[in-house]
Design goal:
378 residues; alpha/beta; Rossmann fold; Glycerate kinase, domain 2; 2 domains; 6-stranded mixed beta sheet; 14 helices; 13 strands; 39% helix; 18% strand; elongated; Glycerate_kinase_sf; kinase; Glycerate_kinase_RE-like; Glyc_kinase_flavodox-like_fold; transferase
Length: 378
């Protein structure tokens, strides 16, 4: 019985690889000779680049780049074994987690370091960059990234500078580089917000990065100003594209300055790990994550797995920590079944410690049931 294991991490308790190991151990108790393929997954957020590098047997590289406050740090990115594809998390150079709480000021933050990281990947031979958005400290519309990659931003005095969220309003002229980057960018983006306005990058997300109401208004005006200049000087606007407001307007910047395409994160990840190839010939997919809830059905990893497996007629069973989906939602998602691994009253600290054993035991029960059902049908 060929079985494909494709879980996400169980946040705070198990990595995706550890979840695969626990699932396989449960399967072996029932079907010792089963053909099991482990394919640890990610949702396109932080940690995706490293996992994709591991799954595709690539090589992890590090480089010194600027953090969101222009301080030098060491950040990593992956290159596929053939060197043609780079895997990068935007949070590696522009992430909020890189800053201590007192340092967080999105009016001062830049995506410049992310541009440097992309530049390093291109220098390493990458022809395609798979970039995951999320967890950013910035609201600069991607101008910092663009400045690192050859775009020039001039103020009213004609001086070149690297804009931040708080200085977008000072841009007077935008000059593109002589030639576009020789790379294709596939951007994993699950945010649908526009660049500015009530549901834009500043209004909706800047408060989470420490912005005050006055700063939020300043940031929103700056993003509007940026797009107006792009329209007036270069005849383009991408402000209303779903996802333009992702990661502080980085989605907009990637489209506008680098010609990137924004794609559902799950599809970018599934393509990067050649999920469809692994799915071919499988009789069952076991997936899972820490929590199955209403967000799961909104384009998240398990929804994408169910969609692709459903087209091939392969059943999918999901295992999780917390399960809040109603039976109708489980059915609509396309799952054969969904099961919580929690089997007794527990505090969170205990559940984390026993997660691997609980996942192993639940996988055992699911596989025993499926084996018995298959025998009865015969």
């Amino acid at each position: 019985m060929p079985i494909l294991l494709a879980p996400d991490k169980f946040r705070g308790s198990l990595s995706a690889a550890e979840a695969c190991a626990a699932m396989e151990a449960g399967i072996r108790l029932v079907l010792p000779d089963a053909q099991v393929t482990a394919l640890p997954m990610a949702d396109g957020g932080e940690g995706t680049a490293e996992l994709l590098t591991q799954v595709t047997k690539g090589i992890w590289h590090t480089a010194f780049v600027n953090n969101p406050l222009f301080k030098l740090i060491e950040a990593g990115f992956g290159l596929s074994t053939d060197g043609q594809t780079a895997f990068i998390d935007s949070a590696a150079a522009a992430g909020l987690a890189l800053l201590a709480a007192p340092e967080r000021d999105t009016t001062l933050a830049t995506t410049y370091g992310l541009g440097q990281l992309i530049e390093q990947a291109i220098a390493g031979g990458a022809k395609t960059v798979v970039l995951g958005l999320g967890g950013s400290a910035t609201t600069d519309g991607g101008t910092g990234l663009a400045a690192a990659l050859g775009w020039q931003f001039l103020n009213a005095a004609g001086q070149t500078f690297t804009p931040t969220g708080g200085t977008l309003i000072e841009i007077a002229q935008i000059i593109p580089p002589a030639s576009p980057l020789p790379v294709r960018l596939r951007v994993a983006c699950d945010v649908q917000n526009p660049l500015y306005g009530p549901t834009g990058a500043a209004m909706l997300f800047a408060p989470q990065k420490g912005a005050t109401p006055v700063q939020v208004s300043q940031l929103d005006k700056g993003l509007r100003h940026l797009d107006q200049l792009m329209q007036q000087q270069l005849g383009m606007t991408h402000a209303a594209i779903p996802g333009a407001g992702a990661a502080g307007g980085l989605g907009y910047g990637l489209i506008t300055f680098l010609g990137a395409t924004l794609e559902p994160g799950v599809d970018v990840v599934l393509d990067a790990v050649a999920f469809d190839e692994h799915l071919s010939g499988a009789s069952l997919v076991l997936t899972g994550e820490g929590k199955l809830d209403g967000q799961t059905a909104q384009g998240k990893l398990i929804a994408g797995i169910c969609r692709r497996a459903g087209k091939s007629g392969v059943p999918v069973v999901a295992l999780c920590g917390t399960l809040t989906l109603a039976p109708e939602e489980i059915q609509d998602l396309g799952l054969l079944g969904a099961f919580s691994v929690l089997n007794r009253p527990q505090q969170l600290a205990e559940a984390v410690l026993t997660a691997a054993d609980d996942l192993r035991a639940t996988t055992f029960n699911v596989m025993r049931l499926l084996r018995t059902y298959a025998s009865l049908r015969l």
